């Protein structure tokens, strides 16, 4: 799994993204690769999950955003994802294994993540990062990019 899809936290994801944003433009290489056709994918779900390991005395918070094809686009060959920040859109396009982006946004000691101020701060940092997904058909044509989904959002 790539750094954009599974990181140690929002800071690591933002550093990876910042390196990729150098020289980005509205029509990046990944954007022009295939013929654009059809409707964009839609957000199916976005969730935050807290996992607590009492034996280790630690917790982690993971965010997952899953996309669905629009009606009539059910036979996509694969999915791609790219990161978005206030500075722009990353020119780096990653193949998405499945249709979900997953990031570990926070982790810490203890067994009560909801009460941890570090979790609150990490979720606030994550809100500066978003993702877009698109589908790729067997003929190489692509759907438009989805609307950006903010890391840490739920819905």
From TrEMBL:
Q: Does the keyword Signal apply?
A: yes
Q: Give the span(s) annotated as Disordered.
A: 134-155
Protein name as catalogued? Uncharacterized protein
Signal peptide limits: 1-27
Which keywords does this Swiss-Prot/TrEMBL entry list? Signal
């Amino acid at each position: 799994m790539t750094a954009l899809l599974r990181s140690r936290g929002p800071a690591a994801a933002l550093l990876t993204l910042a390196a990729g944003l150098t020289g980005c433009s509205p029509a990046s290489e990944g954007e022009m690769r295939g013929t654009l056709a059809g409707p964009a994918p839609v957000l199916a779900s976005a969730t935050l999950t807290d996992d607590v390991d009492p034996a280790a005395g630690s917790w982690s918070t993971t965010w997952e955003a899953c996309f669905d094809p629009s009606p009539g686009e059910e036979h996509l060959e694969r999915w791609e994802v790219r990161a978005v920040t206030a500075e722009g859109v990353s020119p780096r396009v990653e193949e998405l294994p499945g249709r979900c982006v997953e990031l570990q946004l926070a982790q810490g000691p203890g067994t009560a993540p909801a009460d941890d101020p570090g979790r609150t701060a990490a979720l606030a940092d994550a809100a500066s990062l978003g993702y877009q997904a698109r589908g790729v058909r067997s003929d190489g044509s692509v759907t438009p990019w989805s609307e950006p989904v903010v890391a840490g959002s739920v819905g």
